[in-house]
Design goal:
The chain is an alpha/beta fold. It has 14 helices and 7 strands. Helices cover 61% and strands 8% of the residues.
Length: 352
């Protein structure tokens, strides 16, 4: 899932409907007779159950919805399981799920799994980020629950939208390779291989399979060369820079073909990639530099790419990433440039 500050539902009933829609998407039950049904508020006593029905394999399943701010309490979990086990009006179930907005807690999860032996069915958890990820797979549900995150499909024509995403991905990944080449060592072969594969996938969609395959092999050979010759960091970066410049001049520039959306998307991806490469600086340097550039340049570039988005909406979104602590986080190992890139990547995916 992308790093997004998903807005929380206003009340328990809204969250329950959100879970129902999300699981119907997850289990591909949309419009099918065996879909989950409400068993909660307004339908009589709950007795440890909010949703009941069959999953995509026809197995009976129970979902208990928990709207919480912090962690779940083990006592509540045990009580819900006890209440449900006492019911005699339902067939044997395969799994009992707790769908929750609470924070993940590994200790609680493991304790709950241990209960499975006592009750004869699995006990599992579905967390809020997973629920939102399932909803995001359907544009209609995304607009229903998160209208502030959805982009109108009228932002630009479908051909332009289709090229914008791979252009953004190609530019960002290509630019970030600079850091891999500059600071990588022979033992980082697997890491660099993964970066190259990601770039190849984007390039395949943006230009062609032939160019993607050729570029991957060239970059791979270049990586082996710069390590074998034991170049210093600047020389390694220059070698990659010459290769990347030739790739752009011979193939990428031609792929724009007067497509201003793809070109703007590529420019934005490259710029965010450069911000991401700067992540190797100290925390204070990164924070100061990015704060100074953020409000004007990012908003302007996103507006140029997606004119239908309001400036205030973009600024609030970008500022939220900063105030939320994502600008520089050793814990998440994610930098400001990558956070903005991942959010943009998600938005363009929804537009498709």
């Amino acid at each position: 899932m992308t790093i997004l500050n998903w807005p929380k539902p206003a009340n328990y009933q809204d969250f329950e409907r959100m879970v129902l829609d999300a699981l119907e998407v997850r289990w591909e039950l949309r419009g099918k007779l065996e879909k989950l049904n409400f068993e909660g508020p307004g339908t009589g006593p709950q007795e440890g159950i909010d949703l009941f029905g069959c999953d995509n394999k026809g197995r009976y399943t129970v979902v208990q919805v928990k709207k919480r701010e912090e962690v779940l309490i083990l006592r509540d979990i045990k009580e819900d399981l006890r209440k449900f086990a006492a019911r005699k009006d339902l067939p044997p179930i395969h799994c009992f799920y707790f769908a929750t907005t609470a924070k993940r807690n590994r200790k609680i999860q493991h304790r709950a799994w241990e209960f499975a032996a006592d009750y004869g069915f699995k006990v599992n958890f579905i967390y809020y980020d997973e629920i939102c990820g399932y909803l995001a797979e359907e544009p209609g549900l995304l607009r229903k629950y998160f209208p502030e995150l959805a982009i109108p499909t009228t932002a630009c024509n479908h051909a332009a939208i289709a090229s914008a995403l791979p252009a953004l991905q190609t530019a960002f990944r290509l630019t970030c390779l600079e850091s891999d080449f500059r600071f990588g060592r022979p033992q980082d072969q697997l890491l660099v291989q993964t970066s190259l594969k990601t770039m190849e996938t984007a390039l395949r969609r943006f230009v062609s399979s032939e160019v993607a395959e050729k570029s991957f092999k060239e970059a791979e050979q270049l990586w082996l060369k710069v390590n074998a010759e034991e170049m210093d960091e600047d020389s390694r970066a220059r070698e990659l820079g010459r290769w990347a410049t030739a790739l752009k001049a011979h193939y990428i520039d031609k792929a724009f073909d007067q497509n201003i959306v793809a070109e703007r998307s590529y420019e934005l991806g490259a710029w965010l990639g450069r911000l991401s490469v700067e992540y190797d600086r100290t925390e204070s340097e990164v924070y100061t530099n990015h704060r100074r550039r953020m409000s004007i340049k990012i908003v302007d570039r996103i507006r140029r790419l997606i004119p239908s988005m309001a400036e205030g909406e973009i600024l609030e979104w970008v500022m939220g990433s900063v105030s939320g602590g994502f600008i520089y986080s050793f814990e998440s190992d994610m930098d400001f440039g990558e956070v903005i890139y991942l959010n943009l990547e998600s938005k363009l995916l929804w537009m498709n």
